[in-house]
Design brief:
The protein is α/β, with parallel strands linked by helices. It has helices at residues 33-46, 59-66, 70-82, 99-103, 130-142, 146-149, 159-171, 187-197, 213-221, 238-247, 269-282, 303-306, 337-348, 353-364, 367-389, 412-421, 453-467, 472-475; strands at 9-12, 15-18, 86-89, 93-96, 117-119, 181-184, 204-208, 225-229, 231-232, 235-236, 252-255, 285-289, 311-316, 328-331, 401-405, 424-428, 442-446. The chain binds pyridoxal-5'-phosphate. Pyridoxal-5'-phosphate (PLP) binds next to helix 8.
Length: 477
Amino acid sequence: MKFTLYWDNLSINGFIVTMTMWTPDLAAYSGPLYLRLANAIEHAIGQGELAGGSRLPTQRALADRLGVTVGTITRAYAEAERRGWLTARVGDGTWVRSEEEATASDWPLREEQDGRIELWQNLPVPLDRAAKVGPLLQQIERDGSLNRLLGYDNEAGRPEQRDVFLQWLGSHGIAATHDRFLFSNGAQHGILLTLLATGCVGEHIACESLSYPGLLGAARQLRCQVSAVAMDDEGMRPDALEALCRQRRPRLIYLTPTLQNPTTAIMGEARRRELLAVCARHEVWVVEDDVNGLLPATRFTPMVSLMPERVIHLGSLAKIACGGLRLGFLLCPTSLRPALGQAMRLSSWMVSPLLVELAARLVQQGQLTALLEEQRQALARRGELLAHLLPQARWQPGAMHAWLALPAPWRCSEFVMAADRMGVGVTSGELFAASQQATVQAVRLSISQPASDARLGEGLARLKALLASLPPSQLLL
Ligand SMILES: Cc1ncc(COP(=O)(O)O)c(C=O)c1O
Protein backbone atom coordinates (compact mmCIF):
# COMPACT_ATOMS: atom_id res chain seq x y z
CA MET A 1 0.00 0.00 0.00
CA LYS A 2 1.26 3.48 -0.89
CA PHE A 3 1.73 5.49 2.29
CA THR A 4 2.15 9.24 2.18
CA LEU A 5 2.00 11.89 4.88
CA TYR A 6 0.59 15.20 3.81
CA TRP A 7 2.15 17.15 6.63
CA ASP A 8 3.98 20.39 6.65
CA ASN A 9 6.72 20.16 9.23
CA LEU A 10 7.68 16.94 10.91
CA SER A 11 10.01 16.78 13.88
CA ILE A 12 12.32 13.74 13.82
CA ASN A 13 14.90 13.46 16.60
CA GLY A 14 14.66 17.20 17.16
CA PHE A 15 15.24 18.07 13.47
CA ILE A 16 12.50 19.80 11.61
CA VAL A 17 11.94 18.07 8.30
CA THR A 18 9.85 20.03 5.85
CA MET A 19 7.60 17.98 3.66
CA THR A 20 5.33 18.98 0.81
CA MET A 21 1.86 19.72 2.00
CA TRP A 22 -1.01 18.92 -0.27
CA THR A 23 -2.39 22.32 -1.24
CA PRO A 24 -5.51 22.40 -3.39
CA ASP A 25 -6.38 25.31 -5.65
CA LEU A 26 -9.79 26.35 -4.31
CA ALA A 27 -10.18 28.96 -7.06
CA ALA A 28 -10.69 26.08 -9.51
CA TYR A 29 -14.02 25.24 -7.81
CA SER A 30 -17.17 27.21 -7.18
CA GLY A 31 -19.59 27.41 -4.26
CA PRO A 32 -19.03 27.80 -0.52
CA LEU A 33 -15.41 27.35 0.58
CA TYR A 34 -15.98 24.13 2.49
CA LEU A 35 -17.69 22.51 -0.52
CA ARG A 36 -14.87 23.65 -2.80
CA LEU A 37 -12.40 21.95 -0.52
CA ALA A 38 -14.52 18.78 -0.25
CA ASN A 39 -14.73 18.68 -4.05
CA ALA A 40 -10.98 19.26 -4.32
CA ILE A 41 -10.36 16.31 -1.98
CA GLU A 42 -12.68 14.12 -4.05
CA HIS A 43 -10.96 15.19 -7.27
CA ALA A 44 -7.46 14.64 -5.84
CA ILE A 45 -8.38 11.14 -4.66
CA GLY A 46 -9.87 10.34 -8.08
CA GLN A 47 -6.66 11.54 -9.77
CA GLY A 48 -4.45 9.52 -7.41
CA GLU A 49 -2.95 12.76 -6.09
CA LEU A 50 -4.08 11.79 -2.58
CA ALA A 51 -3.36 8.10 -2.08
CA GLY A 52 -5.57 5.70 -0.10
CA GLY A 53 -4.23 5.22 3.44
CA SER A 54 -2.56 8.66 3.55
CA ARG A 55 -2.95 11.16 6.34
CA LEU A 56 -4.28 14.58 5.44
CA PRO A 57 -2.73 17.78 6.78
CA THR A 58 -3.95 18.81 10.20
CA GLN A 59 -6.93 21.14 10.07
CA ARG A 60 -4.92 24.01 11.55
CA ALA A 61 -2.02 23.58 9.08
CA LEU A 62 -4.30 23.44 6.06
CA ALA A 63 -6.36 26.39 7.31
CA ASP A 64 -3.19 28.48 7.65
CA ARG A 65 -1.94 27.38 4.23
CA LEU A 66 -5.23 28.18 2.48
CA GLY A 67 -6.00 31.31 4.50
CA VAL A 68 -9.39 30.03 5.65
CA THR A 69 -10.82 29.31 9.10
CA VAL A 70 -10.32 25.98 10.87
CA GLY A 71 -14.13 25.69 10.87
CA THR A 72 -14.13 25.64 7.06
CA ILE A 73 -11.62 22.77 7.05
CA THR A 74 -13.64 20.89 9.69
CA ARG A 75 -16.80 21.16 7.57
CA ALA A 76 -14.96 20.15 4.42
CA TYR A 77 -13.38 17.08 6.05
CA ALA A 78 -16.75 16.13 7.52
CA GLU A 79 -18.40 16.44 4.09
CA ALA A 80 -15.68 14.32 2.44
CA GLU A 81 -16.08 11.76 5.23
CA ARG A 82 -19.82 11.69 4.65
CA ARG A 83 -19.17 10.99 0.95
CA GLY A 84 -17.02 8.04 2.00
CA TRP A 85 -13.59 9.40 0.98
CA LEU A 86 -12.04 10.02 4.40
CA THR A 87 -12.02 8.49 7.86
CA ALA A 88 -11.36 10.46 11.03
CA ARG A 89 -9.50 8.53 13.72
CA VAL A 90 -9.82 9.85 17.26
CA GLY A 91 -6.53 11.47 18.28
CA ASP A 92 -4.87 10.43 15.02
CA GLY A 93 -6.08 12.87 12.41
CA THR A 94 -7.96 12.42 9.16
CA TRP A 95 -7.01 9.78 6.62
CA VAL A 96 -7.86 8.99 3.03
CA ARG A 97 -9.82 5.75 3.05
CA SER A 98 -7.70 2.84 1.90
CA GLU A 99 -9.00 0.61 -0.87
CA GLU A 100 -9.60 -2.17 1.61
CA GLU A 101 -11.61 0.14 3.84
CA ALA A 102 -13.56 1.54 0.92
CA THR A 103 -14.64 -1.86 -0.34
CA ALA A 104 -15.22 -3.55 3.04
CA SER A 105 -18.73 -3.26 4.40
CA ASP A 106 -19.09 -1.22 7.59
CA TRP A 107 -21.32 -3.98 8.89
CA PRO A 108 -19.60 -7.27 8.11
CA LEU A 109 -21.86 -10.19 8.90
CA ARG A 110 -19.62 -11.96 11.35
CA GLU A 111 -20.33 -15.64 11.66
CA GLU A 112 -19.63 -17.32 14.96
CA GLN A 113 -16.17 -18.76 14.52
CA ASP A 114 -13.06 -19.61 16.50
CA GLY A 115 -15.17 -19.97 19.63
CA ARG A 116 -16.46 -16.40 19.33
CA ILE A 117 -19.99 -15.59 20.42
CA GLU A 118 -21.68 -12.69 18.68
CA LEU A 119 -24.24 -10.65 20.60
CA TRP A 120 -24.08 -7.48 18.56
CA GLN A 121 -26.78 -7.71 15.89
CA ASN A 122 -30.56 -7.98 16.25
CA LEU A 123 -31.20 -10.94 13.98
CA PRO A 124 -34.13 -13.32 14.45
CA VAL A 125 -33.20 -16.45 16.41
CA PRO A 126 -31.80 -18.82 13.75
CA LEU A 127 -34.56 -21.37 13.21
CA ASP A 128 -35.32 -23.54 10.19
CA ARG A 129 -37.04 -21.07 7.88
CA ALA A 130 -36.20 -23.00 4.73
CA ALA A 131 -38.66 -25.71 5.76
CA LYS A 132 -41.48 -23.17 5.53
CA VAL A 133 -40.29 -21.01 2.64
CA GLY A 134 -38.96 -23.77 0.34
CA PRO A 135 -42.35 -25.38 -0.45
CA LEU A 136 -43.82 -21.96 -1.28
CA LEU A 137 -41.07 -21.34 -3.83
CA GLN A 138 -41.91 -24.67 -5.44
CA GLN A 139 -45.61 -23.77 -5.41
CA ILE A 140 -44.88 -20.50 -7.25
CA GLU A 141 -42.87 -22.34 -9.86
CA ARG A 142 -45.50 -25.05 -10.34
CA ASP A 143 -48.60 -22.88 -10.57
CA GLY A 144 -47.33 -20.89 -13.56
CA SER A 145 -47.08 -17.47 -11.86
CA LEU A 146 -43.31 -17.19 -12.07
CA ASN A 147 -43.13 -15.44 -15.46
CA ARG A 148 -45.51 -12.74 -14.31
CA LEU A 149 -43.59 -12.28 -11.04
CA LEU A 150 -40.33 -11.86 -12.90
CA GLY A 151 -41.63 -8.77 -14.68
CA TYR A 152 -42.06 -5.18 -13.53
CA ASP A 153 -45.05 -4.25 -11.43
CA ASN A 154 -46.32 -0.89 -10.24
CA GLU A 155 -44.84 0.67 -7.13
CA ALA A 156 -47.71 -0.41 -4.88
CA GLY A 157 -47.60 -4.11 -5.76
CA ARG A 158 -50.70 -6.06 -6.86
CA PRO A 159 -54.07 -5.35 -5.18
CA GLU A 160 -54.49 -9.00 -4.17
CA GLN A 161 -51.06 -8.95 -2.50
CA ARG A 162 -51.97 -5.77 -0.63
CA ASP A 163 -55.26 -7.38 0.40
CA VAL A 164 -53.39 -10.19 2.12
CA PHE A 165 -51.31 -7.73 4.18
CA LEU A 166 -54.23 -5.44 4.98
CA GLN A 167 -56.15 -8.42 6.36
CA TRP A 168 -53.15 -9.59 8.28
CA LEU A 169 -52.66 -6.11 9.80
CA GLY A 170 -56.38 -6.11 10.62
CA SER A 171 -55.95 -9.40 12.49
CA HIS A 172 -53.29 -7.62 14.58
CA GLY A 173 -55.59 -4.71 15.37
CA ILE A 174 -54.46 -2.20 12.73
CA ALA A 175 -57.16 -1.01 10.35
CA ALA A 176 -55.72 0.09 7.01
CA THR A 177 -56.84 0.75 3.43
CA HIS A 178 -55.17 0.38 0.02
CA ASP A 179 -54.69 4.13 -0.38
CA ARG A 180 -52.56 4.27 2.78
CA PHE A 181 -50.42 1.19 2.17
CA LEU A 182 -47.08 0.69 0.42
CA PHE A 183 -44.56 -2.18 0.44
CA SER A 184 -40.90 -1.29 1.07
CA ASN A 185 -37.58 -3.12 0.87
CA GLY A 186 -37.50 -3.53 4.65
CA ALA A 187 -38.13 -0.96 7.38
CA GLN A 188 -34.74 0.69 6.79
CA HIS A 189 -35.91 1.55 3.28
CA GLY A 190 -39.19 2.70 4.85
CA ILE A 191 -37.23 5.18 7.01
CA LEU A 192 -35.45 6.58 3.97
CA LEU A 193 -38.68 6.84 1.94
CA THR A 194 -40.35 8.65 4.82
CA LEU A 195 -37.55 11.17 5.30
CA LEU A 196 -37.64 11.89 1.56
CA ALA A 197 -41.41 12.08 1.24
CA THR A 198 -41.88 14.38 4.23
CA GLY A 199 -39.29 16.81 2.88
CA CYS A 200 -36.80 16.23 5.69
CA VAL A 201 -33.63 16.56 3.59
CA GLY A 202 -31.49 19.23 5.31
CA GLU A 203 -34.28 19.84 7.83
CA HIS A 204 -34.64 19.44 11.55
CA ILE A 205 -35.91 16.12 12.96
CA ALA A 206 -36.00 14.68 16.49
CA CYS A 207 -35.67 11.28 18.10
CA GLU A 208 -35.04 9.79 21.51
CA SER A 209 -31.59 10.56 22.95
CA LEU A 210 -30.71 6.90 22.33
CA SER A 211 -32.03 5.76 18.99
CA TYR A 212 -31.70 3.24 16.16
CA PRO A 213 -28.39 3.83 14.30
CA GLY A 214 -30.14 3.15 10.97
CA LEU A 215 -32.24 6.28 11.54
CA LEU A 216 -29.23 8.32 12.66
CA GLY A 217 -27.18 7.19 9.64
CA ALA A 218 -29.96 7.93 7.15
CA ALA A 219 -30.48 11.37 8.72
CA ARG A 220 -26.76 12.08 8.43
CA GLN A 221 -26.73 11.09 4.76
CA LEU A 222 -29.65 13.42 4.12
CA ARG A 223 -27.98 16.23 6.08
CA CYS A 224 -30.82 16.43 8.61
CA GLN A 225 -30.14 18.18 11.90
CA VAL A 226 -31.11 15.74 14.61
CA SER A 227 -32.25 16.81 18.09
CA ALA A 228 -31.98 14.28 20.89
CA VAL A 229 -35.05 14.31 23.16
CA ALA A 230 -34.73 13.18 26.78
CA MET A 231 -36.19 9.77 27.66
CA ASP A 232 -37.36 7.86 30.71
CA ASP A 233 -38.38 4.24 31.23
CA GLU A 234 -41.15 4.56 28.63
CA GLY A 235 -39.06 6.26 25.96
CA MET A 236 -39.41 9.88 24.74
CA ARG A 237 -40.65 12.34 27.39
CA PRO A 238 -43.59 14.50 26.27
CA ASP A 239 -42.44 17.53 28.34
CA ALA A 240 -39.01 17.42 26.65
CA LEU A 241 -40.66 17.13 23.23
CA GLU A 242 -42.96 20.05 24.01
CA ALA A 243 -39.97 22.20 25.00
CA LEU A 244 -38.11 21.25 21.83
CA CYS A 245 -41.12 21.97 19.60
CA ARG A 246 -41.52 25.41 21.16
CA GLN A 247 -37.89 26.24 20.75
CA ARG A 248 -37.24 24.74 17.34
CA ARG A 249 -40.06 23.04 15.52
CA PRO A 250 -38.85 19.71 14.09
CA ARG A 251 -40.44 18.47 10.91
CA LEU A 252 -40.70 14.91 12.11
CA ILE A 253 -40.12 12.77 15.19
CA TYR A 254 -38.97 9.17 15.03
CA LEU A 255 -40.08 6.67 17.69
CA THR A 256 -39.96 2.93 18.33
CA PRO A 257 -42.81 2.67 20.86
CA THR A 258 -42.59 -1.11 21.31
CA LEU A 259 -39.28 -2.57 22.46
CA GLN A 260 -37.17 0.49 21.76
CA ASN A 261 -33.79 -0.12 20.20
CA PRO A 262 -31.57 -0.07 22.28
CA THR A 263 -33.25 0.41 25.70
CA THR A 264 -36.18 -2.08 25.24
CA ALA A 265 -38.56 0.63 26.55
CA ILE A 266 -42.26 0.11 25.83
CA MET A 267 -44.59 3.11 25.74
CA GLY A 268 -47.89 2.73 27.51
CA GLU A 269 -51.03 4.03 25.83
CA ALA A 270 -51.17 7.24 27.90
CA ARG A 271 -47.59 8.10 26.83
CA ARG A 272 -48.43 7.45 23.18
CA ARG A 273 -51.44 9.76 23.38
CA GLU A 274 -49.46 12.50 25.16
CA LEU A 275 -46.71 12.49 22.53
CA LEU A 276 -49.26 12.52 19.71
CA ALA A 277 -51.03 15.48 21.31
CA VAL A 278 -47.75 17.45 21.34
CA CYS A 279 -47.10 16.55 17.68
CA ALA A 280 -50.63 17.52 16.66
CA ARG A 281 -50.30 20.88 18.44
CA HIS A 282 -47.05 21.64 16.64
CA GLU A 283 -47.95 19.92 13.33
CA VAL A 284 -45.07 17.46 13.41
CA TRP A 285 -45.04 14.16 11.46
CA VAL A 286 -44.61 11.04 13.61
CA VAL A 287 -42.71 7.96 12.43
CA GLU A 288 -43.75 4.88 14.37
CA ASP A 289 -41.08 2.24 13.73
CA ASP A 290 -42.90 -0.96 14.67
CA VAL A 291 -40.38 -3.60 13.54
CA ASN A 292 -40.57 -5.19 16.99
CA GLY A 293 -44.28 -4.51 17.46
CA LEU A 294 -45.50 -8.09 17.05
CA LEU A 295 -42.79 -9.79 19.07
CA PRO A 296 -44.48 -9.40 22.49
CA ALA A 297 -47.61 -11.57 22.79
CA THR A 298 -49.69 -8.52 23.81
CA ARG A 299 -49.20 -4.87 22.98
CA PHE A 300 -50.59 -1.38 23.34
CA THR A 301 -52.61 0.29 20.58
CA PRO A 302 -50.21 1.28 17.79
CA MET A 303 -49.85 5.06 17.40
CA VAL A 304 -51.06 4.85 13.80
CA SER A 305 -54.45 3.66 15.04
CA LEU A 306 -54.63 6.58 17.48
CA MET A 307 -53.83 9.31 14.92
CA PRO A 308 -53.75 7.93 11.35
CA GLU A 309 -53.63 11.40 9.79
CA ARG A 310 -50.25 12.19 11.39
CA VAL A 311 -48.43 8.86 11.82
CA ILE A 312 -46.31 6.94 9.32
CA HIS A 313 -46.18 3.37 10.59
CA LEU A 314 -43.26 1.15 9.51
CA GLY A 315 -43.47 -2.62 9.67
CA SER A 316 -41.19 -5.41 8.49
CA LEU A 317 -40.96 -9.18 8.36
CA ALA A 318 -37.25 -9.00 9.19
CA LYS A 319 -37.48 -9.37 12.95
CA ILE A 320 -40.38 -11.80 13.06
CA ALA A 321 -39.35 -14.12 10.24
CA CYS A 322 -36.70 -13.55 7.56
CA GLY A 323 -34.53 -10.45 7.08
CA GLY A 324 -33.36 -11.76 3.70
CA LEU A 325 -36.84 -11.39 2.20
CA ARG A 326 -36.35 -7.61 2.60
CA LEU A 327 -40.06 -7.14 2.96
CA GLY A 328 -41.38 -4.16 4.84
CA PHE A 329 -44.44 -1.96 4.56
CA LEU A 330 -45.66 1.53 5.37
CA LEU A 331 -49.02 2.78 6.48
CA CYS A 332 -49.25 6.49 5.90
CA PRO A 333 -51.69 9.39 5.90
CA THR A 334 -53.39 9.50 2.49
CA SER A 335 -51.92 12.97 1.89
CA LEU A 336 -48.40 11.51 1.96
CA ARG A 337 -49.08 8.51 -0.27
CA PRO A 338 -48.24 10.22 -3.62
CA ALA A 339 -44.88 11.53 -2.30
CA LEU A 340 -44.04 8.11 -0.86
CA GLY A 341 -44.92 6.44 -4.17
CA GLN A 342 -42.62 8.87 -5.94
CA ALA A 343 -39.79 8.20 -3.46
CA MET A 344 -40.31 4.47 -4.03
CA ARG A 345 -40.16 4.77 -7.82
CA LEU A 346 -37.05 6.91 -7.63
CA SER A 347 -35.24 4.68 -5.15
CA SER A 348 -36.06 1.22 -6.53
CA TRP A 349 -39.20 1.35 -8.73
CA MET A 350 -40.95 -1.25 -6.61
CA VAL A 351 -40.35 -4.11 -4.22
CA SER A 352 -39.51 -7.33 -6.06
CA PRO A 353 -42.90 -8.85 -7.04
CA LEU A 354 -41.47 -12.31 -6.46
CA LEU A 355 -40.54 -11.52 -2.86
CA VAL A 356 -43.88 -9.82 -2.19
CA GLU A 357 -45.64 -12.92 -3.53
CA LEU A 358 -43.56 -15.20 -1.36
CA ALA A 359 -44.31 -13.08 1.70
CA ALA A 360 -48.01 -12.94 0.84
CA ARG A 361 -48.14 -16.74 0.62
CA LEU A 362 -46.29 -17.00 3.93
CA VAL A 363 -49.06 -14.91 5.46
CA GLN A 364 -51.94 -16.63 3.65
CA GLN A 365 -50.85 -20.16 4.45
CA GLY A 366 -50.23 -19.43 8.12
CA GLN A 367 -46.46 -19.87 7.94
CA LEU A 368 -45.70 -16.32 9.05
CA THR A 369 -47.75 -16.79 12.19
CA ALA A 370 -45.96 -20.08 12.82
CA LEU A 371 -42.56 -18.41 12.38
CA LEU A 372 -43.58 -15.56 14.69
CA GLU A 373 -44.74 -18.02 17.33
CA GLU A 374 -41.42 -19.90 17.11
CA GLN A 375 -39.53 -16.62 17.54
CA ARG A 376 -41.58 -15.72 20.59
CA GLN A 377 -40.91 -19.10 22.19
CA ALA A 378 -37.19 -18.99 21.43
CA LEU A 379 -36.92 -15.43 22.79
CA ALA A 380 -38.80 -16.41 25.95
CA ARG A 381 -36.30 -19.23 26.56
CA ARG A 382 -33.38 -16.90 25.94
CA GLY A 383 -34.89 -14.23 28.19
CA GLU A 384 -34.95 -16.76 31.03
CA LEU A 385 -31.32 -17.56 30.44
CA LEU A 386 -30.50 -13.87 30.61
CA ALA A 387 -32.53 -13.37 33.79
CA HIS A 388 -30.57 -16.22 35.35
CA LEU A 389 -27.07 -15.12 34.26
CA LEU A 390 -27.30 -11.33 34.02
CA PRO A 391 -30.44 -10.31 35.91
CA GLN A 392 -29.30 -6.67 36.00
CA ALA A 393 -29.70 -6.35 32.19
CA ARG A 394 -32.94 -4.70 31.10
CA TRP A 395 -35.09 -7.03 29.00
CA GLN A 396 -38.80 -7.29 28.27
CA PRO A 397 -40.73 -10.26 26.84
CA GLY A 398 -40.36 -10.47 23.08
CA ALA A 399 -37.17 -8.39 22.92
CA MET A 400 -34.28 -9.59 20.76
CA HIS A 401 -31.91 -7.48 22.77
CA ALA A 402 -31.16 -6.43 26.32
CA TRP A 403 -29.65 -3.19 27.60
CA LEU A 404 -26.87 -3.59 30.12
CA ALA A 405 -25.95 -0.50 32.16
CA LEU A 406 -22.30 -0.90 33.16
CA PRO A 407 -21.35 -0.64 36.83
CA ALA A 408 -18.59 1.87 37.73
CA PRO A 409 -15.72 1.96 37.05
CA TRP A 410 -16.42 0.19 33.74
CA ARG A 411 -16.60 2.44 30.71
CA CYS A 412 -18.35 1.49 27.55
CA SER A 413 -15.36 1.43 25.19
CA GLU A 414 -13.22 -0.51 27.65
CA PHE A 415 -15.97 -3.07 28.23
CA VAL A 416 -16.57 -3.61 24.51
CA MET A 417 -12.84 -4.18 23.96
CA ALA A 418 -12.46 -6.46 26.98
CA ALA A 419 -15.51 -8.50 25.90
CA ASP A 420 -14.04 -8.75 22.41
CA ARG A 421 -10.80 -10.11 23.85
CA MET A 422 -12.88 -12.76 25.66
CA GLY A 423 -14.46 -13.66 22.33
CA VAL A 424 -17.83 -11.98 22.84
CA GLY A 425 -19.05 -9.29 20.44
CA VAL A 426 -21.39 -6.70 22.00
CA THR A 427 -22.62 -3.33 20.71
CA SER A 428 -21.36 -0.15 22.32
CA GLY A 429 -24.14 2.04 23.69
CA GLU A 430 -22.42 5.04 22.10
CA LEU A 431 -23.52 3.87 18.68
CA PHE A 432 -27.08 4.79 19.62
CA ALA A 433 -26.35 8.28 20.94
CA ALA A 434 -28.28 10.85 18.94
CA SER A 435 -26.10 13.65 20.25
CA GLN A 436 -22.33 13.86 20.34
CA GLN A 437 -22.42 15.29 23.84
CA ALA A 438 -24.01 12.18 25.35
CA THR A 439 -21.94 9.84 27.47
CA VAL A 440 -23.35 6.34 27.49
CA GLN A 441 -21.97 3.69 29.82
CA ALA A 442 -24.06 0.74 28.62
CA VAL A 443 -23.99 -1.95 25.96
CA ARG A 444 -26.66 -3.69 23.91
CA LEU A 445 -26.71 -7.48 23.96
CA SER A 446 -28.53 -9.19 21.09
CA ILE A 447 -29.68 -12.39 22.75
CA SER A 448 -31.29 -13.55 19.51
CA GLN A 449 -28.05 -13.73 17.51
CA PRO A 450 -26.15 -16.81 18.78
CA ALA A 451 -26.71 -20.05 16.91
CA SER A 452 -28.08 -21.86 19.97
CA ASP A 453 -29.32 -21.24 23.50
CA ALA A 454 -26.18 -22.99 24.74
CA ARG A 455 -23.93 -20.55 22.85
CA LEU A 456 -25.90 -17.65 24.31
CA GLY A 457 -25.46 -19.11 27.81
CA GLU A 458 -21.71 -19.39 27.23
CA GLY A 459 -21.49 -15.77 26.01
CA LEU A 460 -23.49 -14.45 28.95
CA ALA A 461 -21.37 -16.45 31.41
CA ARG A 462 -18.23 -14.86 29.94
CA LEU A 463 -19.75 -11.38 30.34
CA LYS A 464 -20.79 -12.15 33.91
CA ALA A 465 -17.20 -13.12 34.73
CA LEU A 466 -15.96 -9.97 33.02
CA LEU A 467 -18.27 -7.75 35.07
CA ALA A 468 -16.96 -9.36 38.23
CA SER A 469 -13.40 -8.34 37.33
CA LEU A 470 -11.72 -4.93 37.30
CA PRO A 471 -11.39 -3.01 34.04
CA PRO A 472 -7.83 -3.16 32.63
CA SER A 473 -7.37 0.61 33.22
CA GLN A 474 -7.87 0.10 36.98
CA LEU A 475 -5.20 -2.57 37.08
CA LEU A 476 -2.64 -0.10 35.77
CA LEU A 477 -3.12 2.29 38.68
C1 LIG B 1 -35.68 -0.20 15.22
C2 LIG B 1 -35.32 -0.77 13.88
N1 LIG B 1 -35.89 -0.28 12.76
C3 LIG B 1 -35.61 -0.76 11.55
C4 LIG B 1 -34.73 -1.81 11.39
C5 LIG B 1 -34.44 -2.31 10.00
O1 LIG B 1 -35.37 -3.28 9.63
P1 LIG B 1 -35.30 -3.99 8.19
O2 LIG B 1 -34.35 -5.13 8.32
O3 LIG B 1 -36.70 -4.42 7.93
O4 LIG B 1 -34.83 -2.98 7.21
C6 LIG B 1 -34.09 -2.36 12.52
C7 LIG B 1 -33.10 -3.42 12.38
O5 LIG B 1 -32.31 -3.70 13.25
C8 LIG B 1 -34.40 -1.83 13.79
O6 LIG B 1 -33.85 -2.32 14.91
